[in-house]
Specification:
Blueprint lengths: L4 H25 L5 E2 L4 E2 H4 L9 E5 L5 H8 L3 E6 L2 H14 L5 E3 L12 E7 L2 H4 L2 H11 E12 L1 H5 L1 E2 L4 E2 L12 E4 L2 E4 L3 H10 L2 E9 L15 H6 L3 E8 L1
Parallel strand pairs: 3-4, 3-6, 4-5, 6-7
Antiparallel strand pairs: 1-2, 7-13, 8-9, 10-11, 12-13
Helix pairs in contact: 1-4
Length: 250
C-alpha cells in the first residue's frame, strides 16, 4: 500500500537517523529487566503486558526490536514491525547476537500487511503510536487483535506535547500550544502525533476497545537517561511527559 505523506517523511527520517540513534540509546534500550520509556521504569513494576508466554505479540514500531528480543526469551511468539528498513537492519543484528529469531515486517503501522485477528498483544514503547496517525493505527490494532486482545503503548503525554517551545528549543513550564487543536508536530524531519485525553477515549471506544488503565510515568528519584533532549528530570518529576495506555479489544 502506498505510504501517506507522514509515513514517507518518517521513513526517510528514521532511515537517516537510525545509526546515530542506536549508537546513543541501544545500551539503555537493551537493558534487563525490560523497562518502559525515557526513564526505564521496569515492566516488572508496571505489569503492563503481564505473562506473555505462548502469546502472539506484535511490536508496533519495533526499532531494533530490543523489546521483542526480551519477550521472545520470556516465551512470546513475537513479530516486529517498523517503517524504517535501517532500524530493521539493527534489529536483525541484535537478534543474531541474542540468538533469537522472529519475523520482521517492513511497513507503516497505518496499513499493516498482516491478516486480521493475528495477535493477542499489540504494543509499543513510543514506536508507531508516536510516529503514525492514531486515526489509522488504532483501527489497525483493532483489526490485528483477536477478541480480548491487548493494545498497550507508551507515548508522549498531551501535556508534554503542548509545552514544546520551538523558539527556545526546549520543553517549558508553560502551555505553549492549543490543547484541543495541536495533534501533529514536525521536528527535524520527524512527524509525531498526540490526542487530547477525551479524543483518545472516544477513539478507543469507536474501535471496540475498553480502557483498563492509564499509567502516567514519573521517573524514580535519581533516575538517569540517554534521552536528555526529550525532557529534563526535574520537568518529568513535576508533570507526566509519558503515558501508557492499556486497552482491551472487546
Amino acid at each position: 500500500m502506498e505510504l501517506t505523506d507522514n509515513a514517507r517523511m518518517n521513513r526517510a527520517h528514521w532511515d537517516a537517523e537510525s545509526d546515530d540513534y542506536q549508537a546513543r540509546h541501544a545500551g539503555q534500550l537493551a537493558r534487563e529487566p525490560l523497562a518502559w520509556g525515557v526513564w526505564s521504569i521496569p515492566e516488572a513494576e508496571l505489569n503492563v503486558l503481564g505473562d506473555v508466554r505462548g502469546k502472539d505479540v506484535l511490536e508496533y514500531g519495533c526499532g531494533a526490536a530490543q523489546w521483542s528480543i526480551g519477550l521472545t526469551k520470556r516465551g512470546a511468539r513475537c513479530t516486529g514491525l517498523d517503517n524504517s528498513a535501517k532500524q530493521l537492519e539493527h534489529a536483525r543484528r541484535a537478534m543474531a547476537e541474542a540468538n533469537v529469531g522472529f519475523p520482521l515486517v517492513h511497513a507503516s503501522a497505518e496499513a499493516v500487511p498482516l491478516p486480521d485477528a493475528s495477535f493477542d498483544v499489540v504494543f509499543c514503547d513510543h514506536g508507531a503510536m508516536t510516529f503514525a496517525d492514531p486515526d489509522s493505527t488504532v483501527p489497525e490494532a483493532a483489526r490485528l487483535l483477536r477478541p480480548g486482545g491487548l493494545l498497550a503503548f507508551n507515548a508522549e503525554s498531551p501535556l508534554h506535547f503542548i509545552c514544546w517551545n520551538a523558539e527556545a528549543n526546549a520543553f517549558t513550564d508553560r502551555l505553549v500550544h492549543d490543547y484541543f487543536e495541536t495533534v501533529r508536530s514536525q521536528d527535524e524531519g520527524a512527524v509525531s502525533f498526540s490526542r487530547p485525553y477525551g479524543e483518545w477515549l472516544r477513539l478507543f471506544r469507536r474501535h471496540g476497545f475498553a480502557v483498563e488503565d492509564l499509567i502516567e510515568l514519573r521517573p524514580p528519584e535519581g533516575a538517569r537517561t540517554t534521552y536528555e533532549g526529550y525532557v529534563t528530570y526535574d520537568w518529568a518529576r513535576r508533570w507526566p511527559a509519558e503515558q501508557i495506555w492499556r486497552v482491551r479489544r472487546t
